[in-house]
Write a structure and sequence with these properties.
By secondary structure, the chain is an alpha/beta fold. The protein is built from twelve helices and five strands. A five-stranded parallel beta sheet has the order 2-3-4-1-5. Bound molecules: zinc ion.
Length: 275
């Protein structure tokens, strides 16, 4: 595997290899499920590079003009839809004529970031495009869990689960910390002091912790028993944004203790804000 590969992809090496193999005959619609948001997003880009790279080896070269354009999000055949930035059904419909044209390069990719957050109108509008596939268009839906995506989209897609490196299970000691985090969010006491020890979280531990919060949030949004049970949509939205910022900060190598303190304070604020 190329030494240029970012760790987000190295951590999901087997999925990257599968995508590389898939690039000779890609599905019209793909769901990337699990892992972290950054990993899902990076892997969608990896497939697009695999489809276009000028010097492919065991993977895309990551150095040719097309690989670099895709990396910079400057590739004309790459559409990224971000439901959290208030994607509207009109935008989805307006995109349709463009999708029926031949792509400028070999393939066009429409990446739906955080597809689970999409409202029903947008999801149904996209379903229409997925149901009437145009050759050389590939839809890629990214989500923490496939259950969050419209089932009719999932049933028409090839689902690729990412390794659960930052997964549901926390290591011993971390479960206790997670319960301290829960207490902190409810009472404003305890967790900050503990988590400010520098050795409290290593990078993997911090990522697992974020994934655990995400999972609990998803459960809470479905009304299941969790810290976030029946959380109001506005607060859930703020939580998702906070988790994304924390994940980004970790990937930029911000100290884990600082990220976790920021996240716990932010969660506490979101949780206790009067509507
Ligand atoms: Zn290349």
């Amino acid at each position: 595997m190329s030494s240029l590969l970012p760790t987000t992809i190295q951590d999901q090496g087997h999925v990257a290899d599968l995508l590389m193999r898939m690039s000779s005959n890609p599905p019209c619609s793909l769901v990337l499920e699990g892992g972290s948001q950054l990993q899902r997003s990076a892997l969608a880009g990896y497939l697009l590079k695999a489809l276009h790279c000028r010097n492919p080896g065991p993977g895309p070269c990551l150095e040719c003009d097309l690989c670099l354009k895709i990396e910079a999000d400057a590739f004309r055949d790459l559409f990224r839809l971000t439901p959290l930035d208030s994607l509207s059904v009109e935008e989805v419909r307006e995109m349709r004529p463009a999708l029926s044209q031949s792509p400028h390069h070999g393939w066009r990719m429409i990446v739906v970031e955080e597809a689970g957050e999409m409202n029903a109108a947008c999801a149904n509008a996209l379903l229409k495009s997925v149901e009437e596939p145009v050759s050389r268009n590939i839809f890629v839906f990214l989500a923490n869990e496939r259950e969050a995506i419209l089932p009719t989209i999932v049933s028409r897609s090839f689902v690729l689960p990412l390794g659960r490196t930052p997964g549901e299970g926390l290591e011993t000691g971390q479960e206790e910390l997670y319960s301290d985090f829960n207490d902190f969010v409810l009472s404003g006491k305890g967790f900050i002091h503990k988590s400010s020890r520098k050795d409290c979280f290593d990078l993997t531990g911090a990522r697992q912790f974020l994934a655990r919060i995400r999972l609990d949030l998803a459960r809470g949004m479905r009304g299941e028993d969790s810290l976030f049970q029946c959380i109001e949509p506005v607060k859930a939205h703020s939580m998702i944004l906070a988790l994304q910022r924390a994940e980004k900060a970790l990937s930029y190598k911000v100290r884990t203790d600082l990220v976790m303190q920021w996240l716990s304070l932010t969660t506490w604020k979101i949780f206790n804000k009067k509507q």
